[in-house]
Amino acid sequence: MTFDLVVLSPAFLDLTFVGLEGLPTLGAELFAGDLLRSPGGGAITAVAGARLGLRTALAAPLGDDLAGDFLREELAREGVEVIGRRSRVTPVTVVLPVAGDSAMVTVDQGVRCTAADVANHAPAAMVAGIDQLTCVPSGVASYVTCGNDDARAFARRLPAALGESRALFLREHEALVLTERSDLEAAVEDLARSVPTVVVSQGPSGAVAILEGRRHDVPASDVGRPVVDTTGASDLLVAAYVWADLRGADAEERVRWAALYAELSVTAPTAVGGAVSEERLLDEGARHGLSPSPR
Prior knowledge:
Layout (H helix, E strand, L loop, with lengths): L4 E3 L3 E8 L15 E8 H10 L4 E3 L7 H13 L2 E2 L9 E7 L2 E7 L7 H4 L6 E5 L11 E5 L2 H6 L13 E5 H8 L4 H9 L4 E5 L5 E5 L2 E5 L14 H15 L3 H15 L5 H4 L3 H10 L8
Parallel strand pairs: 1-4, 1-8, 2-6, 4-5, 8-9, 9-10, 10-11
Antiparallel strand pairs: 2-3, 6-7, 11-12, 12-13
Keywords: Kinase, Transferase
Protein name: Carbohydrate kinase PfkB domain-containing protein
Organism: uncultured Thermoleophilia bacterium
């Protein structure tokens, strides 16, 4: 099968406590309204890609365990094909959303996709962590993400291959850690010297981007509903950016579509719970003055 998008980023089983009024302290017991299981990490991006009409595959290794079985079933239901090898254990994250933010605890054995896992696939686009650039085949457009661990590991030593990617996506905290800067403006300028497009998520404040050398501030859109869970919004932003890029949107509109998609997601528990369909995104985009690009 030919894919539009292959996601290499590690996937997790997310266990989300819903309805918490605060975080527990030592010796205290709090009660949640519900506990939800959902795809996390790279699986969020893959599910979003499929809901946006892209033929999507996930290349992150999933374990031969109950968590892996659950993720494979959920991904198949969403139309995402799981490719590559299996691992022994599936990474798991416990998510505690509180007051528009969240705390997380993750168990991850560190098994990642290899170049051999995707050697026979040449999609239009690949989403990969900054440590996985060597896995992207020559000629495939890469969209690079950077989490907390990656930011610490690559601080002040960005890989040269990053300059060949279509865009780098990270949150404000990761941008500061990756560049070892205390000021976001300086951090963004540093990153823009290594990659032509940089998109930094700023949570409820929107996003700041350097698009082919030009600075763009993308304010948050008013989607008319309160924030419930921000987990995975940055993973959804990447998926929508790729979708808009493959549709032929210009640089500024790609970021605006991506930011809107992420903002729509935070009104529901879990990232995939808030990942809307292409039809819904197009409707919301029209409300916010965005024009759909030709496919």
